[in-house]
User: Fold these one by one.
Assistant:
Number 1:
Amino acid sequence: MFLVRNGVVEMLGVLFDRYQSPLFNFYCKLTGDRSASEDLVQEVFYRILKYRKSYQSGMSFRSWMYQIARNARLDQARRQKPDAELEDESASSRMSAFTAGDAVEHDQEVELLHRALMQLPEEKREVLVLSRFQNLKYEEIAQTIGVEVGAVKVRVHRALNELREIFRQLETGRASVTKNT
Amino acid sequence: MTCSEIENVFSDYLQRSLRREQIAAIDAHLESCADCKSLAGVWERLAAIPEEQAGLNSKKRFDLMMDAYEEGRKDRQTIKTRRASWWPEFLTSGWQHFPFAQAAMAVVVVVVGVALGKYLNPPAATNAQELAALHQELTGMRQLMVLSMLQQPSASERLQGVSWSEQVKSSNPEIISALVHTVRYDSSVDVRLAALDALRRYKDQPQVRTDILQSLRADQSPLLQIALIDFMVELREAQAVEYLKKFEQSKDLNPTVRQRAEWGINKLSRG
């Protein structure tokens, strides 16, 4: 019996080693909160263990996993709803603290882009994170969020446009601050 | 190309899922259009955002979670046994004051005694149940594992997935269809051959036999074609002759493969 039990643990362990980092990054970019992200990663693996029978082979494993990940995030956000707005505000400031302090221009630009990304509404940010950072194909994203592939492409395009706008505003803001000082 | 034409395919351009000439056309447009170029630039620069490293405790927490999960199982079992031990306490409270009840009690005790004698070792039964549940769980995890491995981008991981599939004892339709899919469409010949080997275990299933017959196509690697022909001969499937004859007529077939196909047809028609 020991062997059997170890087998289950071992196999979930292999999945954990492979996917914990992508999932952690997914959550960091979604929530901007490292400790919440770590909790959510654990939650995802618990759910994989619990709901593994719901996996259907026609679906890509990643789509299925990110579907679970998304639901875990939605449940967590629902639990925190009363101070959701406060969360959002602090999220962008917390994330910016990760990369702050680098004097090099390139790094500043990246940091600004990171801030812009965190200011994007979560549902728009999500498609960008899935396609750009998690490297999911549009078909996989469509399966994950349950919409048509065409709709995913439109969303990615719109989100990117909006991100550019926010980024430009931040850039102008920074330029005027540097000029005044 | 104009900006509005590009808008329709821009997302595909970002993931490079377009034909080469389309990508070149968009590249050319970007050179002359600052607006589109800046949008593509934002996408490019997103890659520079650094990856976050998960804390070292993460794996430890995961192990703890797995321990807790197992503890939860054990607890459920203990509750069952504890419930069983409440009975004698309930039966002895206050009954001894009534003569009829005493007689009834005596009968009950005898019956319970006999019943207990029959179920000599009740914990063994729960152990067996738990073992069965764990076995089922392990099979489930293995299947999940195989299916996820077969979709990995690296060929060596997919190979590993194929070899894991051989550890799944029960014949699972999802795994079989994933293996058939791998035989037909995997980008690596090695992985395809390994998947074909793994399917050997299921060769008695009618669906698998048909799937194998239909997998032989003219545009595949000769190695795989020969392996498929050999497999068909091994199956001794009457239908296979038809498939092989059709296949043999395809143009541009490798001479060795054609020879092998002829050999297969002979072998199968002789029965």
Number 2:
Amino acid sequence: MTEETHWHPDLLRRFVPTPYVFSNCNGPNGIVVESNDLEIALGVRRAGLVHSRDHLTRGLFCKLIRDMAGPVGGSEMTIVADGALRVLYLGVGTILIHDQERSELFGFVARNVKVEELVTSLIPALLDARGNDKSTQPLLQRSDKRHIG
Amino acid sequence: MPLICIDQTDLRYSIPLCFGGAACDLRTNSADLARVLEGLSISTTDSVPSGFRMRIVVDELSNEAAGEPHFRGMQHVVTATFGRSNVFVFDILRRTLSASVSAAIARDDLFWKEKLIPISLGVLGSAMGLVPVHCACLELDGEGLLIAGVSGAGKSTLSVALSEDGFNYVSDDWTYISRRRDGIVAHGTSAPVKLLPDAVNHFRTLERHGLRRSMNGELAYEVDIAEAFGARVERTCEPRWLIFLERTQAAGPDFIPMSSAEARKYINSSIERLPSQLHEAVAMRAQTIDHVATLPCWRFRYGGTPQFAAKELRKFVVHRRQEIYA
């Protein structure tokens, strides 16, 4: 007889079902998009096909959750980068993670963030973020204690 | 847009630390944070085979205190934020915590002691062979007693009562279990003991402490058990028994043997489900849980005060030891 496992509640929301799945197998430019929100899945697929040509060499797996339970608030965007991981925070409720080594983009989109903002602003900002970008230099120098380079 | 490049920051302070039996390689740009974490580090001879890295950038221009906690996780990454200026990214596959925090948080030893270190062990532990199990742990003459039970069963009040009755305290809520060649080791952290408001009816010394809101929103006393109750604290021990607490209306006590399967089922219900990306951690964790479940195990049904339960449990442990060593 198999033991039935009763899992602890999914407080981190790791296992939210993502029934909307789109994939485009096009070699290194392939993209798979999973979401619990049809609009997000469609929007990222459209934008992702363009983006993958410019930035990715081995396709991209995307999993994005529309986070209806999370907090809403704040409009400041911050990116934390360390090695292969880059994490974008918009306020406190939107968290996008890009693992360059694993070619994965995943995260949570707060309920007040529009899909257009996600695909035209947030995802490009995350994928394009580089420590030596001219556009980010003034902010990198904002704190002298963060010695860059 | 602030872009915090941790890997391009001069993390000039590099210190080897140890938390809950796990070696930690700390890199930071802050002397204050290095000093705080060094003060909380507890070295042990029973360390787990693989450790983790902490890479923490401190923004000296920010003095934002810890805000409301917000946790999310997906794939191999868990993030925690405590307000806008305090962000933590746990990469479980790479066993790394990357963070950016305010200067106020860097100097706040209680934040690291009560929140971040236990959270780090809880999140990264499975990838290091360190399994967080929802149970208290006490030790008597070198032998450990794991006390499990649903929330509200009285693990923490019983832990305090046992400490007052001669047991050494290891942990009251989460215990971190690792394997070694000849068995398992239980590790505690520096986390405070958490007692619900009605505990003051059993422990008058709590009247000197204030209630505060804990991370899960409950009002509770969160106190250092050594300072508040004069308990002796041990950081590790070798568990010998597993006890499941059950409060009843009847006075009790009853000790009823439990099977390994029941014990395993309980432990599995208290641990977090991990995604498929972490299959190696899942397998390692399952092996450790199997070891815990094979400990001699009883259901302990009791009514009455924690002090009454502590006396009964002490008698039971002494009796079992006499049987074993007879």
